[in-house]
Amino acid sequence: MFYFYHPHHPAAKIHVERASSFCFKTTADWFHSRPLSYCIGREALQADFCCCCSSIGVPRCGASLHELNKALKIELKANANCVWQIQRNVNQTIRLIFSYFKFAPSSSCETESIKVYDGPSTNSPLLGQVCNDTDAVPVLQSSSDSLTFRITTNSMAFTRNFFVFYYFFSPEKKIENCGGQLTGPNGTLTSPNYPERYPEFTYCVWHIQTAKNSKINLQFQDLFLELDRNCQFDFTAVYDGLTTNTGLIGKVCGLAQPTFESSSNVMTVVLSTDYANSYRGFSAQYTSTPLLAPAEPNTLLTCSSDSMRILLSKSYLTSLGYNETHLRLNDPSCSPAVTDSVIFSFPLTSCGTTKKDEGHSITYTNIVSLSATGNIITRQKSIQIIAKCKMENNSTLEVIYITKNNIIQNTTAVGKYSVSMSFYDSDTFSKPVSESPYYVDLNQTLFAQVSLHSTDANLLVFVDTCIASPQPDFGSLTYDLIRSGCNKDDTVVTYPPLEHYGRFKFNAFRFLQSFASVYLQCDILICDSKNPNSRCTEGCISRQKRAISSYTWKTNTIVGPIRLKRDLSGILNMFPFLLIVKDLHPYARNWTRIM
Which segments constitute the CUB domain (predicted)? Predict the structure, then answer.
């Protein structure tokens, strides 16, 4: 193979010596470690497989491959379904490496993936799958001399890119100083032949395991692998666990001195090389340090109808390696107040807070992100503190949890929506009645309004049930005014639900003999006004239908007492509208009105 390089390129001699067939283009690509356009071996003469003005070894949609090794740069559009079959009659195994892959954004594994089969067709056993969720540099190995992979894409208009490399090898042929188990508290590892050039077709895996409750710091004092922007050809990959399936911390190539840190006492290091451009490899040293338990979270979330307040202790942030300058909400323009603690306080509908109607509750969620700085590469470079206010069933469930290395820490607290009920002097609902008790005339029309005090403008208030009782604890005797949104008293009129207000009116009445006061208790449903199918828009429904109907949040509120006006002589015979108890048993609940 022949390459054009700057005369001072350190590997110029290697490339010329390995020339067999070539193609090139006269651009600045010469100054990369490989040109962006090249062909492999005799592919330079095969137009179907190589275009010197586009990319390396680009088969059309699928191919049958028989070479001992091959690199493929694959570009696919929407709705592709392509199959590549690798087969050669040799008593060897195939190693297949997907060193770079870019699927359509947000595609799922169900709609877009690479599936690899351990045999000559897609009917062979499934060996593995690569998709957007793959957090690794996938390396798969066949059990025989044949292997098949299929790439499928969804309908999104997007150019997918893949770099695939395979080669046949004999598993029994070992390379010295290639991988192994390292169990001491500290140690060193070097690539094969270091500081001489590493071998071609090398795949080495080192497993590092230190004492429990420790973490590993891996520092490369020297690393020189073939340079490529995406590390497609030769690379070192570091994983946050005992296998390559435990999450990729990072992949590196070129000339560098990176440092990696694990989240626990295990780490895996991989070296993979192809057939060309060998350099001196790497020398690395690892150390272990105690894994200190973080300080108690010392986080506090307070929710009200109007606002959310997140308090973080400085000592907790310090234990995580952060300070107040590293924090931001969904909306970065909302900054915290800093005293002995770090405090975010903001209205529920601001600072990027998201609102979600979950059927029987409404949640408001915001995220405090902590972004790390520095040169150490970790598996998860940021921490998220997720604050959630959940409004449901007479209370506000306040949840705050921290995500770090897939660990979630929770704390909960209880609060309330702020709801009140008042009487008004007219149907304009402009002037509330301030006196208490509220003295009324016989059969006087009373106007009642339930008010929700919240900064969220998109909430409906629905009066579901209202009962009257001579007792403020609503014990043995009650009378239904409204039940399940249905008017149970023939003087009741309900108004359509409004954002933040529920309204109704009814005629005054008084209890029998000694019960001189009346109290009202109403059950209130609060719904997202943007949901056209919520319980708040359904009106009167039967109990059976109500059981399967969805509402968002439920609470109750009490107002009273209401008392009948009396003249100075204390007239006691003005009761033609008394409610007579049908059953005088102390638990009787059925009343009727005498008009």
Answer: 61-169, 178-289
Q: In CATH, what number is assigned to the domain containing residue 249?
A: 2.60.120.290
What's the total number of domains in the chain? 4
3 in a structural domain = no
Q: Residue 3: CB partners within 8 Å, gap ≥ 6?
A: 15, 16, 19, 22, 24, 30, 34, 35, 38
This model's pTM is above 0.70: no
Same domain, 150 and 226: no
Which residues, listed in sequence order, are joined to residue 437 by a DSSP beta bridge? none
> Got the DSSP string for 352-409?
T-EEEE-SS-EEEEEEEEEE--SSEEES--EEEEEEEEEEETTEEEEEEEEEETTEEE
**97 to each of 71, 132, 537, how far by Cα in Å?**
9, 16, 57
**Residue ending a domain, choose from 290, 313, 340:** 290
510 and 454 fall within a common domain: yes
Bridge partner list, 311? 300, 343
Asked if residue 303 and residue 381 are part of one domain, the reply reads: yes
The whole domain housing 266 covers: 180-290
Query: What is the full per-residue pLDDT of the chain (595 aa) written as tens digits?
Result: 334 334 334 343 333 333 333 333 333 333 333 433 333 333 333 333 333 333 344 447 899 999 999 999 999 999 999 999 999 988 899 999 999 999 999 899 999 999 999 999 999 999 999 999 898 999 999 999 999 999 999 999 999 999 999 999 998 888 999 999 999 999 999 999 999 999 999 999 999 999 988 999 999 999 999 999 899 999 999 999 888 988 899 999 999 999 999 988 999 999 999 998 999 999 999 999 987 665 555 678 888 777 888 888 887 777 676 778 888 888 989 989 998 889 999 988 899 988 877 666 677 888 888 766 556 666 555 677 778 887 754 444 455 555 544 444 444 444 456 777 888 888 898 888 877 777 777 678 888 888 887 777 788 888 888 888 777 767 667 788 888 889 888 888 988 877 788 888 888 764 433 456 777 888 888 777 777 777 888 888 765 444 434 444 555 566 666 666 653 234 334 333 333 332 333 333 333 333 3
- Please indicate, yes or no, if residue 174 is contained in any of the structural domains: no
**344 lies in the same domain as 471:** no
CA distance 306 to 325: 27
Residues 309, 248, single domain; the answer is no
- Here the tokens at position 181 are 């188990």
Considering the domain architecture, whether residues 484 and 546 belong to the same structural domain is answered as yes
CATH number of the domain bearing residue 499: 2.60.40.4100
> Comparing C-alpha atoms, which of 326, 264, 259, 266 is closest to residue 292?
264
Same domain, 382 and 526: no
CA distance 297 to 385: 10
Structure tokens, 433: 């009645």
